[in-house]
Amino acid sequence: MDDIDAMFSDLLGEMDHLSQSLAEATVSSGEDAAPQESSFSIGFNNLNESLNELEDHDLDDLMADLESKSTDQQSSTHNDTRNPTGNETSPPAVYQESEPVVTFPMITTQSSRAVKMNEPQTKADKIKVALEKLKEAKVRKLIIKVLMSDNSSKTLMVDERQTVRDVLDTLFEKTHCENSIEWSLCETNPDLQTERAFEDHECLVEPLSAWSRLSENKLYFLSTPQKYMMFTEPQIFYMWKKKSSGDMNSQAKELLIKEHFGGSTTIVPNLEGVLYLKEDGKKVWKPRYFMLRASGIYYVPKGKTKSSTDLACFVRFEKVNVYTTSSYKQKYRAPTDFCFLLKHPCIQKESPYIKILCCEDKHTLLLWVNSIRIAKYGAVLYKNYQAAVTRASILQIPYSALISLKLNHHLTPDFFNPPSGQEYL
Amino acid sequence: MAAWDLSVKVEDLGPDAPPVTISVASDLHVGGVILKLVEKTQMQRNWSDHALWWDQKQRWLLRTAWTLEKYGIHADARLLFMPQHKPLKLGLPSGKTVMLKACFSNPVFQTVMGICRMLNIRHPEELSLLRPVEEKKKKKDKDMTEEIYDLTEVPLSSVSRPCLYNGMPAHFADSEQMEGVYKMLSVTQPPPAPEVIAKQYRPASVVDKSHIHGRWLDSSRCLMQQGIQENDRLWLRFKYYSFYDIEPKYDVVRLTQLYEQARWAILLEDIDCTEEEMMLFGALQYHINKVALSEPQMMSSNAALDDLESALQSLEVKMEGDSSSASDLLENMTAPELNDYLKIFRPKRLTLKGYKQYWFKFQDTSISYFKSKEESIGEPIQQINLKGCEVAPDVNVAAQKFLIRLLIPAPEGMNEVYLRCENEQQYAQWMAGCRLASKGKSLADSSFQSEIQSIRSFLAMQKTNSGSSNNSAASDESINTHSLVSPRYHKKYKPKQLTPRILDAYQNVAQLSLTDALMRFLQIWQALPDFGLSYVVVRFKGSRKDEVLGIAPNRLIRIDLGVGDVVKTWRYNNMKQWNVNWDIKQMAIEFEGNVNIAFGCVTADCKIVHEFIGGYIFMSTRSREKSDTLNEELFHKLTGGHEAL
Q1: How far apart are CA A117 and CA A74, in angstroms?
Q2: Cβ–Cβ pairs < 8 A, chains A and B
Q3: What is the separation of C-alpha B176 from the centre of its chain, rounded to a whole number of angstroms?
């Protein structure tokens, strides 16, 4: 027994240490995140303050969101935290186990389940639970405000484990908009005048954490018809040279997808052509012949041929994302407004490390941006598409049927408290 | 019926022995002829593999129930009685040669099936036999006799069903020598010496490449019919670039040989790639060689190993729950740190101060620095998070320069920071830390030690390369980087210059397992724009100049020789029918939308082109449900032409 005691005092010391460092960490992140009117991101320990700054309807939204989460997960606990002032941050709830007595700082509502689920029986179990708790305590959470195309907005909380796909599903539920595979979460950056739709597999918290303090960036929930065009209209990308590739029967499309995504390797469209490049620090846009390969974008150096061995590497995709732009004709005197750029997601302002390319027309831009996505994400993109199609077909069930489905899930109606009428009517 | 004399040469009696003459009647069936022959020779041996070959007609008399009359055999027929399986020297994709008994009487398609069964390669339909490129024998090379791995003693009957023993087919488990052969088949070869690469034949143009494809054997005829003799040399190669259902567990030999073929295609510039891609291929080859040497051979695929794996896994779970290890677990959560004096330089800052020494602390994914060790308890001068940053080495062992170049993303752009280490040891540790941190991993990550190790071995490589005169027996750690890239780069860069380039690419693959590294190599190969193209020089109907037809797994392309550009693409799924006019050796293909093309073949026989197209269509019909049995009949229907009918 002695060593167990020693061990647990070790453990507790460790956790004290951890929660202290956690507090430090969140305080500093709180300083960073000065809430703004339009959008903001904050650490969750700062909830009280930030919640006060929310407008009423935002607060309602957020509460609805938190509640739907707690009804999912709290059904077996009696630790009610649905106090609108954000009970999560008030003194840590103390949990009591039968024997021996262990105290865990309660940090989030979600974590309560892990403790209650299985009464820890053995030392090993307890340690497992403790480790899980420690992990849980490290999970980062953000409160985000998502703008709709009609300028309304929704506010919700995301934690760092949630993918864009998860958040999209939540938004479908909240907005009742017709679920189709075309919806995306897009980030806009007014400084750079760029836009990027997040991929479904990305963890939303990660790209949002790259936003700088006082950022004017916004997050939109939009229908983006291009999102999975490489799968709905593969011939546009894989037979781009053929001018009359407008229509194709579904069988032939399927074959194209199978050929390029079905094997052990994703085949990238063999895109090539003249694009305009803005050279570092210069105002002139120079035409160059660019070629897309799985390993990156290349250009044909002056006086050289298109042969692979002559090509010079312009950019590789491991560390950069592709963004579309607006009004670059005005901003940078680009030949056309059909520009895209490649940059590290952390870069938020003008910088020589941003690579800007300009296309002749809208169609060329569409080809390049989406083909680069194929090259960067490969099979993951295809998996995202398949998951999106499956989700869309499930959620196409008439809404009334969905409600009854939901009701059946929650067998404890005590905790099922319709928050704002319109949600579930 | 009248009896007449039939003379038959019996191979087993020796080349100079006179033909054996037997008295036959026209209604005697072939089986009877063989019986009489065997009796007459009075030799005791197993004759079951023997059959009659009719020399003038160039055909085997395999239907023993047919009578001589039905075959149309008269007294003037020159018949040969010999075994159907004869030894063949087979060049493998890895460049090694095996001697094995192959079937000389069945269509080559079946011969290849037999060979693949013996070598334990699944999906034999993707491979075929190729007449080798004649090697110009120089006098110097004479004393270098190549090693031939002998498989001729494998009894043919034992190969029919591949039952595994110790993870390899039973016929390889018989003796240590046989196990050695299997090892050669299933383990990747070390990188070839640069001189060996330089010496090999390299196609210089598309036309050169097209000549290779004129050498494929005809799948619907047997080896005898194609003039192949006992002990001749042939190459076994993957012919159809549509690799079905690669399963590393069962495909050890297939995967290894496929990698070897891909590696040589890259090294000999049979397929073009960019410089960046070449460096990555080089890094993967280096890594594959290293892991293949260190990893105990995963002969895999036997149940015992699977059990062991699951047993290990459950053991791991147990350990995790075990109280004795709990304190270890907690210890793991308090991450290790690196602490040392290093020098820092920020090139983009407008200060001309150069390198300045500070006390550095590496914790989690961040480095912080302090004025001195004594002040390290307080606030750091700066803390830099390395997550997502770019790490590049700048090392010169001879000059004792150990620089880590960091490119750290920030909202305003990328910040350049150089860290200067004192010595190899320090550099390897901090570099490994930076690499892991850039991927978001902390020093506590299990790969930290192996990362340090791989950085050190790369440093060792630079050492041996710089001491150029020192040509002593190189350890496996020190590979000449020229062994990893095509000759084009031998001219362009010195080994010393290549090392950092390959090292740079190596960062992203250093943690791959052997199988994953092989698969990655194949994936990058398959993603090259020219992958899977087999070229033939053709003359389109109505055209006056030669052009090149590229045959890919899903399409045909027409390449203008003058420009070197693809001028037209036709996809197989739009193909309605294709015909071969054997008399004028012309192929005619009809596509949907009334598109008709016709061409004669210049560098390869019509049959080869016909077989390529039919073969690819056959490959596309394979599906998971029927993958177990090979539809041989369909293959011949699609590729055979009029001869098959």
Answers
A1: 10
A2: 124
A3: 25
The alpha-carbon gap from B273 to the nearest alpha carbon of chain A, in Å, equals 5
Q: Do residues B630 and B565 touch, judged by C-beta distance below 8 A?
A: no
Does the distance separating the beta carbons of B527 and A265 come in below 8 Å? yes
Is residue A163 helix, strand or coil?
Answer: strand
For position B583, which CATH number holds?
Answer: 2.30.29.30
CB contact under 8 Å between B390 and A319, yes or no, is: yes
Best residue in B126, B274, B379 to probe A by mutation, most A CBs within 10 Å? Answer: B274
Q: In terms of domains, do B224 and B104 share one?
A: yes
Q: Which of A124, A264, A319 sits opposite B523 (nearest CB)?
A: A264
Residues B169-183 pLDDT 10s:
888 888 888 889 999
Token output for B235: 């190459």
Q: Answer whether A146's CB lies under 8 Å from A174's CB.
A: no
Q: Which residues of A touch B409 (CB under 8 A)?
A: 319, 344-347
Instruction: Look up residue B495 and give its two tokens.
Output: 């080994």
For B1-37, how does the pLDDT look when each residue is reduced to its tens digit (9 = 90+)? 789 999 999 999 988 889 999 999 999 999 999 999 9
Least Cα separation, residue B412 to chain A (angstroms): 5
Summarize pLDDT for A333-392 with one digit per residue, the tens: 999 999 999 999 999 988 888 999 999 999 999 999 999 999 999 999 999 999 999 988
CB contact under 8 A, A349 and B412: yes
Q: Which residues contact B92 (CB under 8 A, 6 or more apart)?
A: B98, B185, B236, B257, B260
Residue A408, min C-alpha distance to chain B (Å): 36
Q: Give CA–CA dist B126/B598, Å, rounded.
A: 27
Q: How many Cβ atoms from other residues are within 10 Å of residue B420's Cβ? A: 19
Same domain, B10 and B120: no
Q: How far is CA A292 from CA A273, A305, A353, A376, in A?
A: 9, 15, 20, 11
Range(s) of the domain holding residue B548:
534-640
Concatenating the DSSP letter of every residue in A207-243 gives: HHHTSPTT---EEEEEE-TTTTHHHHSHHHHHTTT-T
Q: Under a CB-based contact definition with an 8 Å cutoff, are residues B20 and B40 in contact? A: yes
The answer to the question of residue B362 being in a domain is yes
Query: Are B49 and B103 found together in one domain?
Result: no
B286 in a structural domain? no
Pairing of strands B3-10, B79-83: parallel
Contact A264 B320 (CB under 8 A): no
Interchain proximity B529–A270, CB inside 8 Å: yes
Residue A151, min C-alpha distance to chain B (Å)? 27
Q: Based on the domain organization, do B93 and B70 belong to the same domain?
A: no
CA distance B506 to chain A (A): 14
Class of domain A230-376: mainly beta
Whether residue B171 is found in the same domain as residue B229? yes
Do B174 and B259 share a domain, yes or no? yes
Residues of B in contact with A307 (CB under 8 A): 272, 564
Domain membership flag for residue B232: yes
Residues of A whose CB is below 8 A from B388: 319, 344-346
In chain A, pLDDT over 70 holds for what percent of residues? 62
Question: Residue B536: beta bridge partners?
Answer: B549
Residue A154 carries which side chain, given as an amino acid letter?
Answer: K
ipTM, two decimals, is 0.84
pTM beyond 0.95: the answer is: no
List of residues 6+ apart from B51 with CB closer than 8 A: B34, B60, B61, B62, B81, B82, B83, B84, B105
* Chain B residues with beta carbon closer than 8 angstroms to that of A5: none
CB contact under 8 A, A313 and B274: yes
For an interface test with B, which of A254, A319, A354, A355 has the most B Cβ atoms less than 10 Å from its Cβ?
A319
B267-303 core/surface letters (b: 16 or more CB in 10 A; e: else): bebbbbbbbbbbbbbbbbbbbbbbbbeeeeebbbbee
Cα–Cα–Cα angle for B75, B79, B82, nearest 5°?
155
